[in-house]
Amino acid sequence: MKLTGARDGAALRRAVRVNERLVRQLAFARDDASVRRRGRALWESGLDLKKLGRFAQAAQRFEEAEAVLRRFSSQRDLAVNVAIQRATALIALERLEEALEVLSRVVDEVGVGGTLPNLTARVPEMVDVIPVAVGLWLFLLEHLGRMDEAASAADAVIFALDPGATAMQRSVVADAFRLRGVAARARGDRAQAFAALQAAIELCDGGDLELLKTCARAMTERAVVLGEAGRTQEALAACDEMLARFGTVSDEIVQEAVATVRKARAALTS
Fold first, then answer.
1. Residue 144 lies inside a defined structural domain of this protein
2. Is 219 contained in some domain?
3. Confidence of residue 101 (pLDDT cuts 50, 70, 90)
4. Average pLDDT, the chain
5. Which of 5, 67, 142, 235 has a CA that sits 20 to 30 A from residue 266's CA?
6. For residues 4 and 152, what is the distance between their CA atoms, to the nearest angstrom?
């Protein structure tokens, strides 16, 4: 495995050198075909740099690639995808405010339920590019404590995305319902909080690890809401259900939720 990884790394570094050479050769190109070719070389270099873990260089290349590709209306979908790639590199660098700025611009341009038809026509598996970006946008709004914006964004996601369309859209909508519940709890609306959290949990049944994380967090919030409402027996049952389902899941985010539920249960029985 180590030898395979070393070969893959060497191949990526060679690809970066090839693309960087092309970027330099076309630096002063003026004809459209050459400029587009330079933009794609910047993009491909950014992708390989990101795979190599060289995130700062990747972010720079993605920014340059987007600027070049934006000159051509035919390259708009690719330019949006490049912007999303830049945001992921910025997240890896923990430059979260910058990443949020990029993703907010993408959402403003394309819309929460938008698509990239020119891109997906050529590469059908890219259908989830915008839902991925929307999911990261929600995550950053919440992580950075911008809860009013996060609540509005969650409502927009619930309205615009079809959870039955793809597994990724289902995951994003489930997290949006969880966020709606968190926001409702913060303003003291326990009825709406419970309803939203219940909707998130129902969407998570039978999902992948990302959905399981959302479900664990939503079940935790639901137990807390029930406890705050004085519905002690229901809260204890919710705690027990969550612990039975997730107590042995070896994921950091899930185990943080498990720890919170254990504390909440202990408080309910003290």
1. no
2. yes
3. very high
4. 93
5. 142
6. 46
pLDDT at 97 over 90: yes
Do residues 256 and 240 touch, judged by C-beta distance below 8 A?
A: no
**Number of domains comprising the chain:** 1
Which residue in the block uniquely carries the two structure tokens 């992921």? Answer: 88
Residue 255 sits in a domain whose CATH number is 1.25.40.10
In a domain, 86, yes or no: no
Domain extent, residue 190, equals 162-270
The one-letter amino acid code at 97 reads: E
Q: Which residue do the tokens 């966020």 mark?
A: 179
pLDDT at residue 7 in the model: 54
Query: 32 lies in a domain?
Result: no
Binned at pLDDT 50, 70 and 90, residue 205 comes out as: confident
